[in-house]
From TrEMBL:
Protein name: Alpha-1,4 glucan phosphorylase
Enzyme class: transferase
Organism: Fulvimarina manganoxydans
Keyword hit for Transferase: yes
Function, in words: Phosphorylase is an important allosteric enzyme in carbohydrate metabolism. Enzymes from different sources differ in their regulatory mechanisms and in their natural substrates. However, all known phosphorylases share catalytic and structural properties.
GO BP terms, alphabetized: glycogen catabolic process
GO cellular component: cytoplasm
Annotated InterPro entries: Glycg_phsphrylas, Glyco_trans_35, Pyridoxal_P_attach_site
Homology family: Belongs to the glycogen phosphorylase family.
TM segment ranges: none
Keyword Transport listed: no
EC numbers, comma separated: 2.4.1.1
Subcellular location: Cytoplasm
Catalyzed chemical reaction(s): [(1->4)-alpha-D-glucosyl](n) + phosphate = [(1->4)-alpha-D-glucosyl](n-1) + alpha-D-glucose 1-phosphate
Length: 825
């Protein structure tokens, strides 16, 4: 073949999908890429070979998707997120490409089980929790619904820490998902950008031209792109997740090395690479460290430079950026992008300020994921100024204009101005990233109906007055491919058998099983699937923790980040109360329960660590007490991650969504559980409110104070003491905990935790206890009538389609991005 002949890809034929062809492809990879014969191959070799084959099947579609976007000139969505909690990719890609059968058969010829191979893949944990997982579901749904898009984030070398439990306490260990290489990613040296830090700004006057600001950074690092394909359903579209890795401009300082300073020679490159080395493991406290701000600016600037380069190459004129690109800011972590895009447009590309501001604010959208004051990002001015001097100037200029507008055109008074200012003057002078993201975006959204209303009333009250059309709601969703088809093929099979496969392409059709909630035979099959998933979880618990749990018991599950507002403590107190009651009245007709917990605490969050410790201490005593036998078991599953969730969610009878009302922005675990046929016990918080509307009041178990009631009690300086004194069940449970019953080796361990409840009860644990206890007993009664329970479970699965991330993405595409199918190019 001459060098000019185009390669005939059909000869390579990576797309043949019969089992024979796939087997040949896998053996080809083993032989030529990995250097092993099938009889020598170890299980990791099979994983690698299989992944490489599946990746080949992705390539043509990936190219085609890129070409289609380039040729049509369609608008592109760029989702900027500090976190992408994508988990494993192999099963997802195989499922979406429809390759499950041939790959399974091909591997079986060599005595290899696809299921086993899939479990070897490292779980890519480039995120903390809900926000990161949402970003991953959105990437999959963008590809599945035909929205052309890029995800932009950080290629952390070490993702979210691995959790072990030692003597009941959380221990953090480093996570190293890249040690064996990552067959999914492609390094793109041609997409490398310089990122500056520090230095100073000078004003340059050239004759006949307006003065220009020139930033001369003191430090520069390189951002190198790594691309991973995001395969949509049926492979119809493949989008790109582009993650940035930091590298030093000079890998080694040779002069220093030659002078014998071997460590000093590497200091610069170490400093540069440290930017993308670790994910910050906090999801509710702003980190406040310089490295975090460096990470935020690093990936924002790299992404914007990349977006601009592509736009100019494709469309020529930067002034049409907002017509061809929508950029979504996933929380405030990339909010510095507002200032950075202004800098790039004005300083680098010479666009006048006013026009640049129009382009910027039409391009950005901002999603808020939390109202917790301690989670709202604000950076000390001195730090911001030192690291990003030009961006700081730009923020001052934006601020001056917003304030002038508010005062002159809207008549804002001083208090209102102070509230909307991008600078917090009261708190040691800080830049408020939420305000920056808000003013720099044309659309600002919350992630559930309730959360969006609370945004308008609280954090963004005054900005909402100033821009009343800007805030809108986009309720979260989860992808039904991963969270039904892949994690629960048994339920998927049952639904297919009942109503045919059309729901696979249009999840709304799953509602066709709703009438079958009255069909005894169907309900029985549904219960049998649940039983099977519970057995699988019981096996995992037995294997990992040597605890035997009975699949006949209610599997009552709370899995999520550990946080006071999520109230794992309320659940543990209920377990202790139940333990106490079972011991006092063993003759009563108790419904057997297994209380299952999992989740990680931010390493610096002392109360959250204590809650983990308490769950484990309670488990130790309860599980070894012969009096309660199988009536109560408590289990804490270590190292909760996406892969664990895929096993846990389908096995739940009962899903715990019990946050203090007004504090959980949405929740997405609630959706995964209900889709898989768990009943929810929950407060009127986040998306629970909308789940109740869809599922029906009789199929969800709501208790406790509402958000306005919580706010009212907090104004009244509510404390738990009188409630505890009036409720013997609660009082006994708290007494047992604080007496050291569960931790004789350290009897005062939980004094602080319990005295907080007496003196303050900020999270309304005492206030909600009785309602929670009663609702749980109601559920006990229901569980004794399996037919009724499982009939409700069927209604849950049937009515959850609206909570698909396909629906969320279609709403974003239509109302915020003006992109995707149906949008005019
Ligand atoms: C600056 C430190 C930090 C890091 C991450 C603060 C806050 C965060 C996130 C906003 C926390 C988070 O993951 N929030 C969750 O987002 C989900 C997706 O919208 C929601 O479903 C959860 O309710 C919300 O807690």
């Amino acid at each position: 073949m001459s060098a000019t002949t185009p390669l005939d890809t059909s000869k390579l034929d990576p797309r043949k999908t019969d089992p024979d062809a796939v087997a040949r492809q896998i053996i080809g990879k083993l032989t030529y890429q990995i250097g092993k014969r099938p009889d020598e191959a170890r299980k990791y070799d099979w994983l690698r070979a299989t992944t490489l084959v599946v990746r080949d099947h992705v390539m043509d579609r990936w190219f085609a998707s890129g070409d289609r976007i380039a040729e049509s000139g369609a608008k592109e969505v760029c989702y900027l997120s500090m976190e992408f909690l994508i988990g494993r990719l192999l099963r997802d890609a195989i499922n979406n490409l429809g390759l499950s059968k041939p790959v399974t058969e091909a591997l079986a010829r060599y005595g290899v089980q696809l299921d086993m191979v899939e479990l070897l893949e490292p779980d890519a944990a480039l995120g903390n929790g809900g926000l990161g997982r949402l970003a991953a579901c959105f990437m999959e749904s963008m590809a599945s619904t035909g929205v052309p898009g890029y995800g932009y984030g950080i290629r952390y070398v070490h993702g979210f820490f691995r959790q072990e439990i030692s003597e009941g306490a959380q221990v953090e260990l480093p996570e190293s998902w890249l040690v064996h290489g990552n067959p999914w990613e492609f390094e793109r040296r041609d997409a490398t950008y310089e990122i500056g830090f520090g230095g100073h700004v000078t004003t340059v006057h050239e004759s006949g031209k307006p003065a220009r600001q020139v930033w001369r950074p003191a430090e520069r690092v390189l951002a190198v792109a790594y691309d991973t394909p995001m395969v949509g359903w049926r492979g119809a579209q493949v989008n790109t997740l582009r993650l940035w890795s930091a590298q030093a401009v000079d890998p080694i300082l040779l002069d220093a090395f030659n002078e014998g300073d071997h460590i000093g020679a590497l200091v610069e490159s170490n400093k540069a690479e440290s930017i993308t080395r670790v994910l910050y493991p906090a999801d509710s406290h702003q980190a406040g460290q310089e490295l975090r701000l460096r990470q935020e600016y690093f990936f924002s600037s790299a992404s914007l430079q990349d977006i601009i380069k592509r736009h100019i190459a494709r469309h020529g004129d930067l002034k049409t950026l907002h017509e061809k690109v929508a950029i979504q800011l996933n929380d405030t972590h990339p909010a510095v992008s507002v200032a950075e895009l202004m800098r790039l447009l004005v300083d680098i590309h010479g666009i006048a300020w006013a026009e640049a501001w129009q382009i910027t604010s039409k391009t950005f959208g901002y999603t808020n994921h939390t109202l917790l004051p301690e989670a709202l990002e604000h950076w000390p001015i001195h730090l911001f100024e030192r690291l990003l001097p030009r961006q700081m100037q730009i923020i001052y200029t934006i601020n001056a204009e917003i304030i002038r507008h508010a005062a002159q055109e809207k008549g804002f008074n001083d208090a209102q101005i102070a509230a909307i200012s991008l600078i917090d003057e009261g708190n040691g002078r800080r830049v408020r990233m939420g305000q920056l993201a808000f003013v720099g975006s044309h659309a600002v959204n919350g992630v559930s109906a309730l959360h969006t209303e609370l945004m308008k009333e609280t954090v963004f009250h005054n900005l909402h007055e100033l821009y009343p059309d800007r805030i809108q709601n986009k309720t979260n969703g989860v992808t039904p491919r991963r969270w039904l088809m892949e994690c629960n093929p048994e339920l998927t099979g049952l639904v297919t058998e009942a109503i045919g496969p059309a729901f696979l392409d249009d999840i709304e059709k799953i509602s066709e099983i709703d009438p079958l909630a009255d069909d005894a035979a169907f309900v029985e099959k549904f219960a049998a699937v649940k039983r099977k998933k519970k057995e699988a979880l019981a096996a995992l618990i037995s294997e990992r923790l040597a605890i035997q749990v009975d699949p006949n018991a209610i599997f009552d599950i709370q899995v999520k980040r550990i946080h006071e507002y999520k109230r794992q403590l309320l659940n543990i107190i209920e377990a202790v109360a139940l333990y106490d009651q079972i011991r006092s009245h063993p003759e009563k007709n108790w419904a057997p329960r297994v209380k299952i917990f999992a989740g990680k605490a931010a390493p610096s969050y002392a109360q959250a660590r204590e809650i983990i410790n308490l769950a484990n201490d309670v488990a130790r005593l309860v599980n070894s007490d012969p009096v309660v036998r199988d009536l109560l078991k408590v289990v804490f599953i270590p190292n909760y991650n996406v892969s664990a969730a895929e096993i846990i969610m389908p096995a739940a009878d009962l899903s715990e969504q019990i946050s203090t009302a007004g504090l959980e922005a949405s929740g997405t675990g609630n959706m995964k559980f209900a889709l898989n046929g768990a009943l929810t016990i929950g407060t009127l918080d986040g998306a629970n409110v909308e789940m109740k509307d869809h599922i029906g009041d009789e199929n969800i178990f709501i208790f406790g104070l509402t958000a306005p009631e919580v706010a009212q009690r907090r104004r009244e300086a509510h404390s738990g003491r009188s409630i505890i004194e009036a409720n013997p069940i609660l009082r006994e449970a708290l007494h047992a905990i604080s007496s050291g019953l569960f931790c004789p080796e350290a009897p005062s361990r939980y004094h602080g935790l319990i005295s907080n409840l007496y003196n303050n009860d900020w999270w309304m644990i005492c206030a909600d206890f009785e309602a929670y206890w009663n609702k749980q007993r109601e559920l006990d009664q229901l569980f004794a009538k399996p037919r009724e329970w499982h009939s409700k479970a069927v209604h849950n699965t049937a009515r959850m389609a609206w909570f698909s991330s396909d629906r969320s993405i279609r709403e974003y595409a239509k109302d915020i991005w003006q992109a995707g199918p149906g949008a005019v190019a």
